[in-house]
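Re-run with default settings, no changes from the original entry. Doing this only to confirm the output is reproducible before filing.
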Amino acid sequence: MGQICPLIYYPLLIRMIDESLVKSLVEQSIEGSDKFIVDVKIAPGNVIEVILDSDTSVTIDDCVNLSRDIESSLDRDIEDFELTVYSAGLSEPLKLLRQYKKHIGKEVEVLLKTGNKQKGMLVSVDDEGISISYQIKELLEGKKRKQLVDKSESYGFDQIKSTKLVINFK
């Protein structure tokens, strides 16, 4: 009788595409435009996500063109990958100072690291943090009913967990 040989399993070695390479390709492609990178994520299996924003707007054509530029610079025969390019949506939290500045004058909801939330109009942004203004009803001295009172708060970026745009359909 013959001997049974154990099956030896060698896992396929899949190289990860370098995040800095993808960022460099994106920067080359958007150079000279008002577009900017919000985030680049690479998950196992070379699943690449590129989130793009702009000082004006990001169109579907912008995403398609960027996707083509990236794909033409990467070789699927060497490293297979999955690529998704999309614009920073309204439901995505603001991540960059440039995004905050773009949305001055718009209503935001700030979630603080303490767990408290505050909605208001984004009034100003600097390297340290943001200021928002909002109205609240308070009972003022000498009045029988609560009156709307303008308030403003400033928050340092170190206090903020996330900031999202408030979408109103009014």
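Residues 36 and 53 are 5 Å apart (CA to CA). The two ends are 83 Å apart (CA to CA).
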